[in-house]
Design brief:
alpha+beta; 3-stranded antiparallel beta sheet; 7 strands; about 160 residues; 4 helices
Length: about 160
């Protein structure tokens, strides 16, 4: 297995506290749902990486970027190991719409809640036949599995 790489996952929050989630395609995690994000480049801050990746993937400009937590993501089948840095932020323009700027990598962007994500993560472990089930990208599953006390992206800023 190669040395770990660093990824940054971004909870882009709207005024209601929902965040954007995309269905991956054509790469690791094909068919699973994930946040905007990507590889941290040499010398880049977590905040700069988050802003760059969100703009490249969704055309959303973001502000108030803050660290939430980190996960250790070992993808055995793909012989990959990542440490994922999770951040949360708000949109500069709350009326902006997430655009799919990388259709070869993402099918669609949707707004979801932390409660929905936790339910999908639980179904991943328990039962994949539920009609509302969505397969989640391993790093998102690991937030729930490795950080059971994590209350979601809204809690870090709004005290929920």
């Amino acid at each position: 297995m190669l040395s770990p790489k660093v990824g940054v996952g971004v909870f882009v929050l709207n005024e209601e506290g929902n965040f954007v989630l995309g269905k991956r395609k054509g790469s690791r995690g094909h068919g699973t749902w994930a946040l905007p994000g990507g590889h941290l480049e040499a010398g880049e801050s977590f905040e700069d990486c988050a802003a760059r990746e969100v703009l490249e993937e969704t055309n959303l400009k973001i502000k108030n970027i803050r660290f939430l937590t980190a996960t250790n993501d070992v993808m055995v089948a793909e012989n990959k190991h990542y440490v994922t840095i999770w951040v949360a932020c708000e949109m500069v323009d709350n009326q902006a719409v997430a655009e799919n700027l990388e259709p070869e990598k993402c099918e669609v962007w949707e707004w979801v809640t932390w409660e929905e994500l936790k339910r999908w993560a639980k179904l991943e472990v328990v039962e994949r036949t539920d009609s509302g089930y969505r397969a989640l990208f391993l790093p998102l599953l690991n937030i729930v599995a490795q950080r059971p006390d994590f209350k979601g992206p809204v809690s870090a800023d709004r005290g929920h």
